User: Fold these one by one.
Assistant:
Number 1:
Amino acid sequence: MSGNPILDLPYTPAAAITRFQLVKLSAANTVTPCTALGELAWGVAQESVSTADVTNGRVVNVRLMGRARVIAGAALGAGVPVRTDATGKVVALAATTANQKCVGFTECTSGASGDHIDIILTFAGEAST
């Protein structure tokens, strides 16, 4: 990934987090991985945090704005609006579901679940396809 990120901030992790996983606020200044399809994401973790790290008080940097690398939850095309899946990966907005929580738009393609891809974060709230 090249280019300049716009905004990364440190948060206290409430659980283990995988690098490039979508996270949500779980309390003031505290994040945890997204665990429900289409839930409101707060940002993208920029590093992994283990359970031991959580216990030891480590912080995790979270990308809130700009370009972010994420983990694809399925094959995706470029320019696709995405939302979180139940494991903090990104998947395309559902074609038949209104008012989905869009986290951004893909900049490149993904061949399969688990691929790392770049998106432009929008966190624009709800969107329909």
Note: The beta strands are 7-13, 22-27, 30-33, 43-45, 60-71, 81-84, 90-92, 100-106, 116-127.
Number 2:
Amino acid sequence: MPAGFSSRACWDSPQSLPASAYGRSTAGPSVSQRGAASLANRRVRATGVYDRTHELVLRTQALRELPGVVLVTPLRLSGAGDTAVLVERGFVPSPDAVTLPPEAAQLDELGSQRVHGVALALTAEADSGAPLVHHEMMTWRGLDLAALRARLPYPILDVVIRQTPDSSLPQMPRRREPTELNEGPHLSYAIQWFAFAAIAVVFAVVFAVVFWRGGKRG
């Protein structure tokens, strides 16, 4: 990773996941259909139109040791009034990891877009995301929910969708893979019950051994 980069600034280090993890059949619920906060760390989908006028640039990012920036674009949700959801469209190489390359102006995705990805919770940053003006362009160290709601001219949901790779999408910006997917509360409950069952089996075995040894001594 380039000098001066922090693991936090890069959000997550990308890891490869099976292609089936991104299948349309497992795209998850629409963020416009239920509370966004309950969808954090789960696969979701959203439909709307990108607003690049209010696009956000995350600085000091890295992808496989390559410095760059990440584009986060508001998606004006279809059928949701003025509400938008932020979409992390992906990574764009930049030598200083701050300046947005001129070619980025051509990275439009026009018309209605159907986005598939993983919802990540937007929280409060101690430095409000550290907005910084560089060459007359605002860049951010992180995404702060309160600061972004104050800056954007329309309501935004409290999650950002990290758009997952798909062969039908343009090569740039480079979509980043999520490091962890959560299938929701049912999976966590199942894991808990399996853990309880395993503990019960262990105690049963220990009790049986102790009982058998005690009976043998008697």
Note: The radius of gyration is 22 Å.
